[in-house]
Amino acid sequence: MSGLVTQTPLWLEDRPDFPQDALPDSVECLVVGAGLAGSWLALELARQGREVLLLEEAHPAAGASGRNAGQLVAALSWPYARAVDILGRERAREARELVEASMKRLGEELADCRSRVQYMQTGSLACAAGDRERRQLEQSARLLQEDGFEAEFWTADQLTKRYGASPFHGALHQPGDATLHPAALVWTTLQKFRDTGGSYAGEGVSQIREEGGWVHLRTDSGELRARQLFCCAGARVPRLFPLLEGRVRSVQGQIMMTEPERKVFVLPMYSREGAEYWRQGEKGHVLIGGCRDQAPGQGLEREAPEPDPAVHAALEEFRRRSFPKLAAARTAGSWTGQMAFTPDGLPLAGRLPGHTLSWVLAGFNGCGLCQIPEWAHRVARALQDDSSLPAWADPARFA
Ligand SMILES: Cc1cc2nc3c(=O)[nH]c(=O)nc-3n(C[C@H](O)[C@H](O)[C@H](O)COP(=O)(O)OP(=O)(O)OC[C@H]3O[C@@H](n4cnc5c(N)ncnc54)[C@H](O)[C@@H]3O)c2cc1C
User: Fold this and answer.
1) Nearest to 314 by CA among 306, 322, 326
2) Secondary structure of the chain: what % helix, strand, coil (to 5)?
3) Which of 136, 226, 268, 370 has its CA 20 to 30 Å from the CA of residue 204?
């Protein structure tokens, strides 16, 4: 087993500098957090002709958006068959339609910059680690087809024929899925936002109070006020809005990366409902993430964001057991990132309970890339024409 080395996420190795705008005393819309949710929402609001300021306490894509695996997989928090059990058929279909709309929106937005964000529509595979998962994925494929979504179940033999020997018991193939460079997606979105007239500054927000038709904020360097506030602070949302404590939990994910290898994986894959996931980057690095059930506290936010040795050992063991071709690959290092988990696996999108001018867009669990563009679009539209957002994502639902 290779030793545990902490490293900068692959995506943040060549991080660009963004120019900073001066802070105004007041602004129409203020967005907190330049992850994918905040950047995309800021762009949507700016395209409505609004005056928008985006504030980020670290740097664009510093949070989960720059630390994930870049797997653009149309999925809810569970395989579709389980989503149907948990949410009911109608709601599962509605949630999945939203994901499809989001993937389409993202694909269209990237039409002019696919190579910049390394967008590759390869399809994806959810691989069955055992017979129970195989049955669940087979059933998911059937339900997805019945509900009008593109998906196909491949038996273990079909999988072997296409990709050679594999320890998996079959797989769910979704042809519309993709891989991308997740931080470049944020940077490109932020650039489009600035080109649309939006302002950006590297400032943390520490206090928020609604009074007299304004949201008053304290930032690292002073105070300002906004007519509307949108909190897209990912796992850190409860620090700004303690009423969301327990509704948004910070859960640590971990990814290990090998030195560049010849092509082994042509598409993003995952198994055990995303408990392990893997893909290969453009330059050949193999990324394997997950195994957070091995961490003390199951990955709940810890003081030290360094990779957890028990998780690292489990990831190495998973690699050894599942991919003999990678047995000799050298581990380059590992990184972590904080995901925003919700008790019911669904995001928070809408006005904060008890607030009229403050909104939240967060809680994307382990699969935000496929959902955020559409949610951001809908939140911006709700501000424009009072259109309603689905009740199942209402931040007040846990009250
Ligand atoms: C290891 C790992 C692997 C993952 N793999 C995948 C994957 O393959 N596919 C997928 O779809 N999803 C994946 N995810 C989940 C995905 O990354 C998230 O769902 C998504 O990035 C969430 O985006 P966000 O904008 O809501 O949050 P974030 O990206 O966390 O953005 C929040 C931003 O807010 C800033 N901020 C916080 N507080 C303040 C404040 N007070 N003032 C100013 N700024 C503030 C933070 O610095 C941060 O930049 C993974 C996550 C992790 C951690």
Assistant:
1) 322
2) 35, 25, 40
3) 370
| Residue 214: predicted pLDDT | 98
In whole angstroms, give the CA distance from residue 118 to residue 102: 18
Of all protein residues, the one whose alpha carbon is nearest to atom 48 of ligand 1 is: 63
Give tens-digit pLDDT for 234-292.
999 999 999 999 999 999 999 999 999 999 899 999 999 889 999 999 999 999 999 88
Q: Which residues pair with 272 in a beta bridge?
A: none
Q: Which domains does the chain have, with CATH numbers?
A: 21-67+183-247+344-398 (3.50.50.60), 123-178+249-341 (3.30.9.10)
Question: What is residue 301's predicted lDDT score, i.e. its pLDDT?
Answer: 63
Is residue 34 lining ligand 1, measured as CB closer than 6 Å?
yes
**Amino acid (1-letter code) at residue 344:** D
To 10 degrees, the CA torsion angle through 302, 300, 270, 337? -40
**pLDDT digit string (tens) for 88-121?**
999 999 999 999 999 999 999 999 999 999 999 9
Which of 23, 54, 68 best tests ligand 1's pocket when mutated (most atoms within 8 Å of CB)?
68
The answer to whether the beta carbons of residues 110 and 187 sit under 8 Å apart is no
- Interior/surface letters 320-339, b for 16+ CB within 10 angstroms, e for the rest: eebbeebeebebbbbbbbbb
Q: Which whole-number Å values give the CA distances from 147 to 141, 150, 314, 378, in the listed order?
A: 10, 9, 37, 23
Give the single-character DSSP code of 300. Answer: B
Q: How far apart are CA 368 and CA 346, in angstroms?
A: 10
Residue nearest to ligand 1 atom 53, measured at CA: 337
